[in-house]
Amino acid sequence: MLTLKGEHIYLRALEPEDLLFLEKVENDEHLWEVSSTQVPFSRFILKKYLENSHLDIYETKQLRLAIVSQESSTALGFIDLFDFNPSHRRVGVGIVIASTTMRNKGYALESLQLLANYAFTHLKVHQLYANIPEDNTASKKLFEKAGYIQAGVKKDWVLTQGEYKNEILYQLIKHVY
User: Fold this and answer.
1) Domain containing 147: what range?
2) In 147-169, which positions are buried (b, 16+ CB within 10 angstroms) versus exposed (e)?
């Protein structure tokens, strides 16, 4: 069974050719709030990151995959696994579709579904989770559509432009019956 290839997109490992796209996404200040970034990344640092992206998730506790269009073979964004905890069999999920014109076309939902299938099948995790700012309606709808359930609220969790925001914890738990 293929877990990283869907109907419209596929997920693949990062390649050296992703450097400029990675630089564009990582240095987009509009995304810094959700990625807890406060300073831009240099091309040198991102190149080193790409050089080490082949390391095992069991070693680094994270994995970033490119979301690629089947039709054009163009990278549309990234999907991440982070804070991988094999002892408790859980991992965090983050996703970005870089171009606003490519959003709301089902790519993110298909990516989340593929990633969940991959994580449940190959990493044998019991659950995936996402931390979403309370005011990020689009992300909340996306994760809910992918089957994630709101599990809690972290009060005053994120400080953005001098104002605290709540963060919602979503979980997708694999139930085996």
Assistant:
1) 9-173
2) ebeeeeeeeeebeeeeeebebbb
Has this prediction a pTM greater than 0.85? yes
126 in a domain, yes or no?
Answer: yes
> Could you give the CA distance from residue 101 to residue 136 in angstroms, rounded to a whole number?
18
CA–CA separation, 53 vs 63, rounded Å?
A: 8
In a domain, 3, yes or no: no
Poorest-confidence range of 1-5, 15-19, 58-62? Answer: 1-5
Residue 135 has a pLDDT of: 94
Q: What is the CATH number of the domain that holds 162?
A: 3.40.630.30
Condensed to tens digits (0 to 9), the pLDDT of residues 19-65 reads: 888 888 888 777 777 666 777 888 888 888 888 888 899 999 999 99
Closest CA to 63 of 39, 43, 83: 83
Number of structural domains found in the chain = 1
Alpha carbons 53 and 79: distance in angstroms, whole number: 13
pLDDT tens by residue, 94-116: 999 988 788 889 999 999 999 99
Bridge-based pairing state of the strands 163-173 and 90-97: unpaired
Residue 132, SS3? strand
Question: Are β-strands 163-173 and 127-133 bridged in parallel, bridged antiparallel, or unpaired?
Answer: antiparallel
